[in-house]
Amino acid sequence: MIKIAKYVLYDIVRSRFILFYAAFLLVVTFSMYSLDSDPGKSTLSLLNIILLVVPLVSVIFTTTHFFNSYEFIELLLSQPVNRRTIFMAEFFSVALALSLAFLIGVAFPMILLAYSAATMYLILSGLLLTFVFVSLAFLASVTTRDKAKGIGVALLFWIYFTLIYDGLVLYVIYSFSDYPLEKVTLILSSLNPVDLARIIILLKLDLSALMGYTGAFYKNFFGSNFGIIYSFMFLILWTGVPLLFALRKFAKKDI
Amino acid sequence: MITISDLNKRFGRLEVLNSINVQFESGKSYAVVGPNGSGKTTLIKCILGMVVPDRGEILVDEKSILQNSAYRKLIGYMPQIGRYPDQMKIGQIIGMIRDLRNDETQIDEDLIKEFKLDQLKDKRMHTLSGGTRQKVSASLAFLFNPPILILDEPTAGLDPIAVEILKEKIHSEKSKNKLFLITSHIMSDLDELSSNLVYLEDGKMLFNDTIDVLKKDTGELKLGRAVATIMKRNLKATEV
What we know:
The complex is a heterodimer of chains A (255) and B (240).
Chain A: H1 2-15, H2 17-35, H3 39-68, H4 70-77, H5 83-113, H6 117-143, H7 147-175, H8 182-190, H9 193-204, H10 212-222, H11 225-251
Chain B: E1 2-11, E2 14-24, E3 29-33, H1 40-48, E4 55-60, E5 63-64, E6 75-78, H2 90-100, H3 110-114, H4 130-142, E7 148-152, H5 160-174, E8 179-183, H6 187-193, E9 196-201, E10 204-210, H7 211-218, H8 223-239
Parallel strand pairs in B: 3-8, 3-9, 6-7, 7-8
Antiparallel strand pairs in B: 1-2, 1-4, 4-5, 9-10
């Protein structure tokens, strides 16, 4: 697998997209910290950008990469190489390349400029989100036959998790506001990887007061060690489950 | 060497392979013939594990190919349209495949030399003509000296000199007790290269015997006319 991943990574680096992505993140991070003297506020603004940009780039890059390497996959399939090996090599190369760009673009300047527990959580969540959306995009790619459809479905995942889902949650909370909803909202946000990442960081930034009673409840839950483990476990599940489905689909796909 | 039993495959509502039963033996060379869309390439892709059959079993060297990839060590495959990563160079492609299979000891670089691909090794795949791609595909198929060779339209797109080089290669490998599966629409090539003929139409196998039997059966001397005769015969049968 490592041998194949080596060739995939070589191909990814050659395309230069990853370098632009890293440079873009680097510029954004540096400008955020130079705009405001309070690093907490800058981290918050950066959080909102990262939660939007990281999933979007992960999704688009993964789907285009997958369909562009169709010939490569075809070539390998005529050789004595296992399909699962090919798939896992593709997944890890894409996820690692994007993570590396994120580390260079965000983690490196952040540790340099505003090192704190909250920034460490932001970095970790950003990395996990990359893995989650790469995994979702692979699922979208293997279930569709052409590039346009694949990118369409993958973008739908992104729009759903960053925009539509929050609207739906707000609607539910608003309509049932007479009932105690803390546990329900906890479950609802576990079902959205972007929300999970956001909550962890907001709590670490000590902004839970902004979220009222639910915020206090969240703080109680997510502030504990159990809460942190719970949310990271869920993010890992969000990577593993779509990946498993994609792998099973790919093992039976007609090339 | 390859045993196929009750193989079925549908693409949506289209039945591409319909209960194929056939055995391909070492030392023989099979021509796989049939009209366009008769399932030749799908049959080959099933043997290679690129297309997963709905039903049926394929044994290569007496082992089932399902959930197995090691058997592909035994097969050299030359696709109908060789598709390669655009940005890679010829040398890199060959180097990569050799790197992936660096446990192989018998390397056969005859075709690379004879097609003079080493002079083109710094050319990127997307700059190549169809014929040069075919040369790369052919060289890769023969590279590890495999006992089974599956050639899907090997001569299409090659210039006359390259065709002769390839035919020469096939002839010399045939004498080493290897199994060949060749599809083509050029009957004179098949007449020259193969000993047996498998005829597919609408996913069904309608003929499987030696070419000599086919010629005797139809009373024709040339393979092209003999195949045309069975095609017409089937056409009449369906009309009735």
